[in-house]
Amino acid sequence: MKIIIINGPNLNLLGTREPDVYGNQTFENYLKALQLKYNTVQLDYFQSNIEGRLIDKIQEVGFSYDGIILNAAAYTHTSIGIADAVKAITTPVIEVHISNTFAREEYRQHSFLSANVKGIIIGFGMKSYELALQSLL
User: How far apart are CA 92 and CA 136, in angstroms?
Assistant: First the structure.
């Protein structure tokens, strides 16, 4: 089984960015532990701060992978392009958010992606990624 985690803008700063909201663990360290725990799954990773690169990656893997775990970060609330890319592919997508977006600023409470994904996991910290992975398995 091939699953990819795709992270959007500023998630490369996990571990140092607003640790009270996002925790103090880097994503790279978390990913290594996740890959060890689910060693029968090919678990790939891609991160970009650039909207077009995220769209390109979704299109690239969206017909050949078994699942996409997508944390589009701020683009969740602004990108019709990413929403359209998710809608255009056949691979199931789970939308993930580390923080509870409904407990934050009002603009974070709307997602352009949600109508086009298989499911949404919000607010369980980094564990949100593992919950998404389990849902795909």
Answer: 8
